[in-house]
Amino acid sequence: MGLKLLVTSDFHADEQLKDAAIEEANSGDYDIFLNLGDFMTEEYAEELFEPIEIPALGCTGNRDMHFSSEFMDGPVPVYNFLEADIDDEYLLILIGGDFPEDIKQKVDDLLQDRDGSKVIIGSHYPPKKLGDRVHSGERVGFDQYRELLIKHKPALWASGHIHEDFGRNSLFDTEFINAAGEETGKAYSVTIGDEGGVEDIEEIQLVEK
Questions:
Q1: SS3 sequence of the chain
Q2: HSE-up of 117 (CA within 13 Å, CB side)?
Q3: pTM
Q4: Which of 120, 188, 126, 204 is CA-nearest to residue 161?
Q5: Dihedral sign (CA 127, 129, 131, 133)
Q6: Mind listing the pLDDT tens digit of every residue in the chain (209 residues)?
Q7: CATH class for domain 3-205?
Q8: Distance CA 156, CA 175 (A)
Q9: Half-sphere exposure (CA, 13 Å, Cβ side) for 168?
Q10: How far is Cα 155 from Cα 2, in angstroms, rounded to an integer?
């Protein structure tokens, strides 16, 4: 069975984006809602996730490093690192702003015997040379993420963080999206096919910017 995801990131406590994302997630079109960090406050993250009626998950961003251990261990589904099996077929990995030091080895171990076409990875920071170009033209993505992408070829790698490089790209068998939404007001709809791999990616205008 395929999956349809609503992928968002970097709302920076924008109330319009929060309300629009909740409405879009609850439209009946999606199986999973993802947000890849920079909520800014614990209260905002709670207000975003609590009304969403479908499975919803998020990771921390660099602006969320102050979130308390009590919050991170609580009911709001925001994580520094998460690996979760979906429907006994798909594996979802989320890597937040405060990720384990051994993140490359950790992900390597998880993906060693997995079919990459049924793996979805979301990280706050982008891989090197994908969605990571800042205004100066410099590339600021993570080398270890690019190495993991090339080695394991997940169906989808989604990130945020670099607002000015919102967009879509691909590398080998992996589709990539930077879903940072504060400046664009946009998110992405991503459909994973029954046999794995990405079938469709569509920009979603949550709010006009």
A1: CCEEEEEEECCCCCHHHHHHHHHHHCCCCCCEEEECCCCCCHHHHHHHHCCCCCCEEEECCHHHCCCCHHHHCCCCCEECEEEEEECCCEEEEEECCCCCCCHHHHHHHHHCCCCHHHEEEEECCCECCCCCECCCCCECCEHHHHHHHHHHCCCEEEECCCHHHCEEEEECCEEEEECECCCCCEEEEEEECCCCCEEEEEEEECCCC
A2: 9
A3: 0.97
A4: 126
A5: positive
A6: 689 999 999 999 999 999 999 999 999 999 999 999 999 999 999 999 999 999 999 999 999 999 999 999 999 999 999 999 998 889 999 999 999 899 999 999 999 989 999 999 999 999 999 999 999 999 999 999 999 999 999 999 999 999 999 999 999 999 999 999 999 999 999 999 989 999 999 999 999 98
A7: alpha beta
A8: 5
A9: 14
A10: 12
